[in-house]
Amino acid sequence: GPTIKSHPWEEMLGKERPDVGPLAKDVPDDFFFAEFRSLNKMIDVLDSGDLWAKHLLHQTAGEARSQQVGERLKRQLAVETNPLVRPFYDLVVEDVAVTGSDLFFNEGSDLTLLFRFKQPEVFKARMNGFLQNAEKADKLVKRSSGQFGGVDYVHLTSPDRSVHVFSAYPQPNLHVRSNSLIALQRVLSAIQGKEPGGAAVRRLGDSAEFA
Predict the structure, then answer these.
(1) Which of 76, 112, 128, 108 is nearest to 186 (CA)?
(2) Count of CB atoms situated within 10 Å of the CB of 20
(3) Are 203 and 209 spatial neighbours (Cβ–Cβ below 8 Å)?
(4) Which residues lie below 8 Å from residue 8, measured CB to CB, with a gap of 6+?
(5) Angle formed at CA 109 by CA 23 and CA 79, multiple of 5 degrees
(6) Residues near 106 by Cβ (< 8 Å), separated by ≥ 6?
(7) For the packed helices 66-76 and 39-48, what is the interaxial angle rounded to 10 degrees?
(8) What is the pTM of this model?
(9) Which helix (H) or strand (E) holds 78?
(10) Per residue in 105-142, pLDDT tens?
(11) Confidence band of 205 (pLDDT split at 50, 70, 90)
């Protein structure tokens, strides 16, 4: 029979299979992905603007300062980062990642955060509190709910989309928070390893190129 050549990435890896981390296996293989061992480390990068402005979320229009981009995203996703909540993040968050389908951020792009955590009651109470705070801060914010692939999600949105977030807990110690329903659905499918129709999902953490 014909000789089947291995992919160049497979040849480079040989028998070595590095630990890619659990969150890389929760995203589609065509999404960008950046993982942090500490949410506070990610917050530091977000607040500095370096990650968002220079590497992932390039503003394609206007001259908005990078920190303003970070503040806008935090408000949109209802993620609070004031000093009072940082001990909470250190206590319960084990890993966090940012992912999305568009490397050059603009108003139409998506952004999704994934959290792996311990102490589920503490984590959920605080993160759900952020959603409640977003509702209280703006009377125009509307709450709804839905389900995808057997996973329940909560959606908050305001008319100007200054708040626009989908929140889900697909596993007992995994939280997904996105500003795009399509991105949320694609990430949930990756977590489950298949589309609702049964088709397999190619996941970033399973790819030889990522490894």
Answers:
(1) 112
(2) 16
(3) no
(4) none
(5) 60
(6) 59, 60, 61
(7) 130
(8) 0.80
(9) none
(10) 444 578 899 999 999 999 999 999 999 999 999 999 99
(11) confident
